[in-house]
């Protein structure tokens, strides 16, 4: 269950966000991973921008390709308000699981009933060229951790909401889907670890998202997960891995990914 201290900090953060954005509640939240930064510009009009550092429990961006702000965006054509986080706390930063899922719990406290979790990842399918968006249909959490504290047995059977995946495919019928495998990081996976993930049923490998998705389900939110394949996973191609490659692939695919999410969010 969400501990009282975690809930209190999330409520305090939501209060500050409401004051800074002049919006009592928000409807949908988006967490933008590597390569997804421009998405907020395409969803609708940014009504307010809030520095993370003025909101309880948040810090500035720790990874290149992320921004240390959150935005309140009026979603075009829907009358809804989106809360867009330009960065996330990664598990490998060593700040603890509560910090990793704080944005999710804050979004829930702010009234969001749906959350869209995005990331940049390595692809195991050689047909997925860098810049390919893939829906997450399930995940394997290899962090050895859970955001749930106490005897709260949350059902994760349909963690990534089927209705939202169907809606995404209505927007883009070419979208594939796969199983996302989260490693602890920050080092990239070895070729042997990638093959292990493949044997376990994985299609995508990365260093985020699963803990956030679990926290979102605990909070009763619908979850849509979308990965941007920024590179072939270790051992799938002969190219060495680098964060610069991740950023370059994200920049090249920014327009397509932004348009995709803007259409999906408008329909939710």
From TrEMBL:
Domain named Nucleoside phosphorylase: residues: 28-265
Keywords, in A-Z order: Glycosyltransferase, Transferase
Class of enzymatic activity (EC top level): transferase
The keyword Iron-sulfur is annotated on this UniProt entry: no
Pathway: Purine metabolism; purine nucleoside salvage
List of residues binding phosphate: 34, 66, 88-90, 120, 208
Catalytic activity: a purine 2'-deoxy-D-ribonucleoside + phosphate = a purine nucleobase + 2-deoxy-alpha-D-ribose 1-phosphate
GO molecular function, one term: purine-nucleoside phosphorylase activity
Positions bound to a purine D-ribonucleoside: 189, 231
Any GO BP annotation: nucleoside metabolic process
Highest taxon of the lineage: Bacteria
Enzyme Commission identifier(s): 2.4.2.1
GO cellular component: cytoplasm
InterPro entries: Nucleoside_phosphorylase_d, Nucleoside_phosphorylase_sf, PUNP, Purine_phosphorylase
Record-stated family: Belongs to the PNP/MTAP phosphorylase family.
NCBIfam families linked: PNPH-PUNA-XAPA, PRK08202.1, PUNP
Assembly: Homotrimer.
Job of this protein: The purine nucleoside phosphorylases catalyze the phosphorolytic breakdown of the N-glycosidic bond in the beta-(deoxy)ribonucleoside molecules, with the formation of the corresponding free purine bases and pentose-1-phosphate. Cleaves guanosine, inosine, 2'-deoxyguanosine and 2'-deoxyinosine.
Name listed for the protein in its UniProt record: Purine nucleoside phosphorylase
Origin species: Ornithinimicrobium ciconiae
């Amino acid at each position: 269950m969400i501990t009282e201290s975690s809930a209190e900090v999330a409520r305090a953060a939501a209060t500050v966000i409401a004051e800074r954005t002049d919006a009592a509640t928000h409807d949908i939240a988006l967490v933008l991973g590597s390569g997804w930064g421009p998405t907020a510009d395409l969803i609708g009009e940014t009504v307010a921008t809030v520095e993370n550092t003025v909101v309880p429990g948040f810090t500035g961006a720790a990874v290149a390709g992320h921004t240390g702000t959150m935005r309140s965006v009026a979603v075009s054509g829907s009358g809804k308000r989106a809360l867009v986080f330009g960065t996330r706390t990664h598990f490998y930063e060593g700040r603890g699981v509560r910090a990793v899922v704080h944005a999710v719990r804050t979004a829930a406290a702010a009234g969001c009933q749906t959350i869209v979790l995005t990331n940049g990842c390595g692809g195991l399918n050689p047909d997925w060229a860098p810049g390919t968006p893939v829906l997450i249909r399930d995940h394997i959490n290899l962090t050895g951790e859970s955001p749930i504290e106490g005897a709260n047995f949350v059902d994760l059977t349909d963690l990534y909401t089927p209705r939202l995946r169907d809606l995404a495919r209505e927007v883009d019928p070419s979208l594939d889907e796969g199983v996302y495998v989260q490693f602890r990081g920050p080092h990239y996976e070895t070729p042997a670890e990638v093959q292990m993930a493949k044997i376990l049923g994985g299609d995508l490998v990365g260093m985020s998202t699963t803990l956030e998705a679990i926290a979102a389900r605990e909070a009763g939110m619908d979850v849509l997960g979308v990965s941007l394949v920024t590179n072939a996973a270790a051992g799938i191609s002969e190219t060495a891995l680098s964060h610069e490659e991740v950023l370059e692939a994200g920049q090249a695919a920014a327009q397509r990914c932004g348009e995709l999410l803007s259409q999906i969010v408008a329909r939710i």
